[in-house]
Amino acid sequence: MTRQDTLENIVRISGTDAKKCMKCGKCDGRCPAYNDMDVKPHQFVNYVAEGKLEKLLASHAIWNCLSCMACVERCPRGVAPQGVIEAVRDTVIRMQGNNGIKAEEIPPIVDEMIPQQLLVSAYRKYNK
Amino acid sequence: MKICYYPGCTLKTKAKELDRYARLSAEALGVTMEEIENWQCCGAVYPTARDEIATKLSAVRALDYAKHNGGKLLTLCSACHNVIKRVNDDMTNDENIRTKANNYLALDEAYAGETQVIHYLEMLRDIVGFDAIKEKVVNPIGKKIGAYYGCLLLRPGKVMAFDNPENPTIIEDFLQAIGATPVKYPMRNECCGAYVALKNENLPKERSKAIVKNAESHGAEMLVTACPLCLYNIQKNGGMPVVYFTELLAEALGVK
């Protein structure tokens, strides 16, 4: 895929219109992972609109977004920052060798109480 | 009445109490939960990328089964409810997803979102009725309890249509019906840190602590939830007792 194709695909699969953002910052204000987001929710939206692909693909924030949908709920312009973040994460992990978690990292952090729901959802979010 | 029921992976393993007390309580309230045949794991998180199809098929299979078996699908786990309800919205409103999912599944009759997805709490509110529950309570709970909604039942509000996503009351109303004192606190619809526990354990630690501290400062003695992952994160990091809402219901109805 060319750089332009990748950008266009992110726009398409995000299911949201980044150009509608008016930069009010409500998404950031509500984000429970804000301190762990090196690229903030509003920046994901703006970078897509401005075509700053490299900054998006290199972000650590794609692993810290909780998909809690608080940003989507609060956006007064009907933009879905979470949709952009997930589109970027999917773009990254759909490339060979880019999975977010490795199977061998899992056993040491699994305790007796860990619900299947956690393992299944993490694998769905981080790996392809 | 009988209703099709989708339990999900965690309710068969780590969250057996959520399931068991739900079934016992439903029977006491005149509802039989009939587990659907050959259900598959819903995937636990709704894939938001608009080109995701295969990851939604297990939900569509469950929805289609319910369509031919009474037209309603009862869910209990917050994650299953979120995934199945949102996939159902796609099958109703997203032509691309509907067409591709149906092409793949090749059902006798195409599925187009006909099934009504109902969470157990919605069943208590809308089918049984909180007043009817109140009449059947034999052991009023009598504790100050904080409802912990989390994200999955409420958001996105337009699709979930569960309650007011910013100021929900359904669990507080439920708590009142079983003789408990609901404690409202601002962080009851904030995220616990969810699946990031596997990648960055500090995040759920901080989130869960903040939620418990907030509930505590408003006078809660314990929390109730409908989500096994919320329960896990809060229990591990929060330091306040947290139980499934069905356990309290069964206790109140005298069937625990």
Structural description of this entry:
- Chain A has about 130 residues and is mainly alpha-helical.
- Chain A folds into two domains: about 5-95, Alpha-helical ferredoxin (Fumarate Reductase Iron-sulfur Protein, Chain B, domain 2, Orthogonal Bundle), CATH 1.10.1060.10; about 100-130, no CATH class.
- In chain A, about 55% of the residues lie in helices and about 0% in strands.
- Chain A contains nine helices and no strands.
- Chain A has helices at about 5-15, 25-30, 40-50, 55, 60-65, 70-75, 80-95, 105-110, 115-125.
- The radius of gyration of chain A is 15 Å and the shape is globular.
- Chain B has about 260 residues and is an alpha/beta fold.
- Chain B folds into two domains: about 1-120, Glutathione S-transferase Yfyf (Class Pi), Chain A, domain 2 (Up-down Bundle); about 140-255, Rossmann fold (3-Layer(aba) Sandwich).
- Chain B has helices at about 15-30, 55-65, 80-95, 95-105, 120-130, 130-135, 155-160, 170-175, 200-215, 230-235, 245-255, and strands spanning about 1-5, 30-35, 70-75, 115-120, 145, 180-185, 220-225, 240-245.
- In chain B, helix 1 (about 15-30) runs parallel beside helix 11 (about 245-255) and helix 2 packs across helix 3.
- Chain B is globular and about 55 Å long.
- The mean pLDDT of chain B is about 95.
